[in-house]
Structure formats: C-alpha cells, structure tokens
Fold these 2 entries.
Entry 1:
Amino acid sequence: MGAVRGWLLTVIAASLLCALADALMPPGAVKRVGRLVCGLVLLAAILSPAVRLDVAEGERWLAECFASMEPRRENLEETVNNQMKIIIEGEYAAYIVDKAAEFGLTCSARVECRVSEEGLYLPVWAEVSGALTESGRARLVQVIREDLGVPEAEQSYIGEEELP
C-alpha cells in the first residue's frame, strides 16, 4: 500500500509541476515544446513502477500459486471420478433391471466398474437378486455377457429365497 501511495504522490507532484510550467511558459514554439516535455515527464511518472518490477519474484509467486492449486485439482478430479463411477454403475444396474423387465422378471442389480486404459468405466462384476426362473437367468447371463462384457464367472445371482 505504501508503494501505491508513493507512486500516486509522484504522479500528482509531476502533474502540479507540469501545470505550473505550462502557466509560466510564453506562447508559441516554446509552449509547444514545453508541453511535449511535460507529457514525457508525466508518462515517466506514471510508468515508473514498471521499472522497479521484480519479474523473478512474480514468477516465483505464480509458481507457488500453481503448486498450491495442484493438490486441490487432484482432489477435485478424484471426487468427480468417484461420483462419475457411482453414476455409471447405477446406469449399468438400471440397464440390467430394464432387460430383466423385458423378459418379465423382477429383480435388482448391482454393478462394479473399473477404469480401462482408455479412461472409460467398464463393468467388471454384476450381482442380480430377485425371483428369477432358470430361462430368465440364462437370458440375463447372456445379455450381461454380450452387452456389458461381464464374463459369467463375474456374475452373481441371488434368488429370492436367499435374500435376508
């Protein structure tokens, strides 16, 4: 704040000196040259803080600022990815329930996803619970294997009698 105050005082002092010099100059070519000089003096007073700028200090401050934002960015990215995973798992589970409804079955489903090399959340495990007939279960096994890519070994089925 003290630096801004000093800069303002410099600009005001230069302005007052230029106004006084302009008032005392005789008209004609001398006044035109005097105004040019006063304009240059004012410009120098206004731009004087730029001469004292410490660019290295500014770069250090900016680097520290970016460094302090990196953990926050990583934390935010992790939170977003976790929320995205939950949403995608819910969508896959809803797909299974919808397919079961098409077959005339009533069930609930849970799906677990993992991130692929391409950064996509792909299902790796599915659990279906509810009253399922043998033919309905076989159709669901096939749909989950073909449409979602979950192998039969990673599919779990809980019958209605097994539910707590």
Entry 2:
Amino acid sequence: MSAFYTTVARFYDAENRDKTDDLAMYSRLAAQHPGDILDVGCGTGRVLIHLAQEGHFVHGIDNDRAMLARLESKLVQHPLLREKITYVCADVLRHQTERRFRLLLLTYNALMHFREPAQQISLLQKLRGWLDQDGLLVIDLPNAGPAFAADDTESLTLERTFLDEETGHLIMLQSVSLLDRATQVLHIDWIYDEIDGDGAVKRHLAPHQLRYYFLPELRLLLDRCGFSIENVYGDAEGGAYLADSERMIVYAAGT
C-alpha cells in the first residue's frame, strides 16, 4: 500500500477535494459517541482534520510517510489543531497501544487494502481490542455487486482532471483496470499525466490492488473477531443498502 500512496501523495488532496459527502456522517457519529476517535489509514487528514475542527480528539495511523508529511504541513498552518490531533506512522497490524477509542474508522475504501484473510482477521481482532465500551466500528466500502455485474473492458478510462495545488499544472487522471472475480481483487493502474505551462507531459504510473467484500463474508469476519453488525447503509446519508447501492457502509459494535 505504501508505495502507491508515496507516488500519489502530492496529488491526493487536489484529486479528492470534492470528496465531502461522508463528513456529515462522521460528525454525527462523533457527537453520538463522545470520546477519542481512531482513523485507520488517515492519510493526509481529510476526515481527521474535519473532526478535529469540530472539537473532537482524533488519533490517526498510516504507514506512508509522504501522506503524513502532507498532514503535518496542514498542522503547521493550523497549529491549534495539534491540541486535538495525534498521529503515528506505523503498520496498524504491528502497532501497539493502550488507548481505547469510542469510534474506530475505516473510512473510504480503507479495508480494501487488506487483501489476505490473515490480514483481515489480524486487523479486526486488533481493532476489537482497541474499542472502548459502547464504542462503534465504521467501515465504508464500495458495494461489490455492481462492480461484479459490469462488463470488463480493460480500456483506458479518463477518470477526472484537476489542477495540482502546488504547481498549477493540469493533471489528467486515467485508469486501466481488471477485476479478478475469483480472488475479488481489483488490479488497477492509475495514470497521472501532468501537463505543464508549455504543454509538456510527465506521466506518473501508480499500480494498485484493492479487494472487494460482500456483506455475508464481512459479517462472518466481524463475528469471528468479536463484532456484530448493527446497521448497513447504502450511502453516507443513511439510505437503505440495496443490490445497486453505490456504497456499503457498516456500523459494528463489540460483542
């Protein structure tokens, strides 16, 4: 995971500037579960900083130094947030802490980085040990059904264009992907074409692999690791989870 994010870190915030649809959900859950919050795979701090700005105490963990350097630069610009935010650069599967959290967040696609069953079980068991009494685990994933029903094309797809915040260069983000339905792993090459003021193009290639989850297997994983599912939603606004829902957002409590 780290090599991919080291490549894309400089583009991450500009690329995801419009990704705000889930922030109100995390604000609501933080108000309902007052106490310390853990953001697993916190990256550059998209959710972390939002919650800290609302007065919550938030701890982040991420294993990519380039992403955390972006977070640190934001804290330099907003020093008062340091009173609310702590973070550590570490592999969550090896990290040890005595802290307990009222909210454990696996935000936008974070669980997809854990592709092997042993990793999944290790992660969820560790998180169960970090969950405070009456706490909640939140997992935000894409709904696997529509992806598995779609036809494979392996064609080059233009995902979006945006401006690099530091250079002002135009970035054309494209992708080529292949879904292995036997292993439930999406193999995707992200292609960042950076166009400078003279029209010269510099290409940044970032291959990535992400694993899809279906609800029955996630339910079994959570049950094995000491969680029970409380609710499943199809979007961040609390809409019903249906076969064609875009997202699969799971709230789980400790058993």
